[in-house]
Structure formats: C-alpha cells, structure tokens
TrEMBL record:
CDD domains: ABC_NikE_OppD_transporters
Location in or out of the cell: Cell membrane
Coiled coil start-end: none
Pfam families the UniProt entry points to: ABC_tran, oligo_HPY
Protein's name in the database: ABC transporter ATP-binding protein
Domain ABC transporter, first and last residues per copy: 8-253
Source organism per UniProt: Nonomuraea mangrovi
SMART domains according to UniProt: AAA (SM00382)
Its membrane topology: Peripheral membrane protein
Family, per entry: Belongs to the ABC transporter superfamily.
Gene3D superfamilies given in the database record: P-loop containing nucleotide triphosphate hydrolases
Gene Ontology molecular-function annotations: ATP binding
Amino acid sequence: MSVETNVLEIEGLALHLPRTARPVLNGVDLTVGAAEIVALVGESGSGKSLTLRAALRLLPRQATVRGSIRIAGEDVLTMTTTRLRDLRAGTASMVFQDPRAAINPLRRIGDFLTESTRTNRAVADELATARARELLAAVGLTDRVLLQYPHELSGGMLQRIVIASALMSDPRLLLCDEPTTALDVTTQAEIVALLARIRRRFGTGVLFVTHDLGLAAAISDRVFVMYAGRIVEHGPADSLFGAPRHPYTAALLASTPRLEAPSARLAAISGQPPDLHTELTGCPFAARCPYVIDRCRAERPEPEEGVACHRAGELVLSALLEGDRCDG
Ligand SMILES: Nc1ncnc2c1ncn2[C@@H]1O[C@H](COP(=O)(O)OP(=O)(O)OP(=O)(O)O)[C@@H](O)[C@H]1O
C-alpha cells in the first residue's frame, strides 16, 4: 500500500459497458483513510454506485475495467475469486439503501447477525452471539431484537442491524450506498451520528455515496464530486462546501436547500447530464456550465490540486453562489 493509512485506494478506474459511446467511469481516483468518512456526491446516473460496487468487484456482466483498486493494500481487480470472497466477508462490508432487501424476512435477527460470521470464520455460536450483542449495543439496540423478526422492527432499526451485521467481521472499510435515503429525516440523522461513532470506535474507513449534499456536509471529512463518470472536484468537506472551485460543485450547492434559509428559491442546474450514448470531448460539464469558454469544449481538463476545470484559477464561485440564490 502506498500510503499506510489508506483503507481504499482507487486509481485511474475506468469502466466500459457494452453498447455505450463512452466509459461510464473514466479515470476515477479516490482514497479513504482509516477512520475517515469520505462522501461521493453527484446527480443521479453520474456513476457513484458503480464506483462503490467496483471497489468489491461487484460489476455488471460484460463490464470492462481498467485501473487499480486496493483495499487495505490488496489489489482487488487481480485477486483470486476465493480471496475476493474472503475480502467481502471480512475486510470490507457494504450497506445498501433498503435494509429490508438485505435481511431474510423469515429468519430471526440473531441468526441474521451471526450466520455469516459462523460460516465464514468458523466462529463458535457463543462467540458470534457475544459479538452480535456487543455490536447491537454499539448501534444503540438492545439484545431483545436477537429473537425478533424483521417485520417487527422499523426501517431505522433494521438499518442499524444491517450496519451491526456489516461490522461483525471487524472490517477496515465500510461501503455505504445511500444508506439513509429510505429513512425519515430524524432516523437519517441518527444513522449519520451512528456512523460517526463507529469510525471513531472501530477505526473503520467509510465511503458514503449520496446525492444529498446536506448529508455529505454533515457526515464527511472529505468529499469527492462526480460528474459523468469523472471526479471533477475533491477536498476537505469544509473548504469544498465553503468555497467550491468547480462550477458543477457550485451549481449542486446552489440547488441544495440550506438549513439557515430553507425557503430560499433554489437555482436548478439547467440541462441534463450527458447519457452514455453521448461521446464527450472536452469538459463533461461544458454543455451546462455558465462559465464555458471555447477551450472547455475542445480540451478535457485534467485534475489539478483537486479540481478539473480550465477556469478554476480565475473563478470565485463562493461569491457567485450567494448571487445565484434569491429569497423567495
Ligand atoms: N448493470 C448496468 N448495466 C447497464 N448500465 C448500467 C448498469 N448499472 C449502472 N448503469 C448505468 O451507469 C450509469 C451510472 O450508474 P450509477 O448507478 O453508478 O449512478 P449513480 O450516480 O449511483 O446514480 P443514482 O444516484 O441514481 O444511483 C447510469 O447511466 C446507469 O444507467
């Protein structure tokens, strides 16, 4: 591993699907450190989920992949399927949007929590149950749920159980795909607080995919902004949200409701992201960018100091962002 503390290192990841005009992921670079929460944000269809799934080689059939992915130093794309299975059962775990889809409705929660640990790690029943109790406490639930069935519990409780289950193997990396989207706002906030406690207590690195910038700001240390399969900007959450440097980040922020001004009229981003049948030359955001110049259409900007924009050095987007909002 090139940096000892990184639990996930993605370099130059490109993914091509059949019958498309361009790669669905194109040169993605992203890292997650130990005990770090990293958010991956962007509009629907930008490639967030595919990036997350690629980390565990959960790829669509016939996808062609280039680049490198390392989890805790191990090369995911070249490892054997046996090693990959062990990695998925141990070093890295995934949490999806809908907890009900992840839990067998016919099994008690206790069995759900302990069965993969018993099978994959040959751990004795008592030890697995002791670990399940410890993790239930860590996610704020009592042992009582061990004997309950999924239908007896709320969506928020089930998502806590899914998170407890993901932690059973003591993973170094937790991959979360919109884990709070199906939950109400209060429960959402509880799950966010829970993930923050978990990374402190267990040192787990978390990659958190969301299209909700407010959530990303609340939870993450660093943020990666994705557009049309490319990372257009990344950096510490405070500076990225306080002073965005890519026009797309600024546009996303301008279209996000703010706590301090929830009734302010939001500036929707005009136009649509390019679909996979559109070939792209130049900057992928050029067709929708208010600051576009000829060079943007002709030449693809490479990331420099965390931002891929030809005009990053001259634009002051935080000021423009305020101007884009009007009280309504
Ligand atoms: N298995 C697949 N086969 C074909 N196309 C796919 C497949 N999975 C995803 N895609 C396409 O790849 C693009 C990126 O999808 P992805 O799910 O990664 O986006 P996303 O940013 O996570 O969006 P959302 O927030 O809606 O989940 C989309 O255009 C999607 O239609």
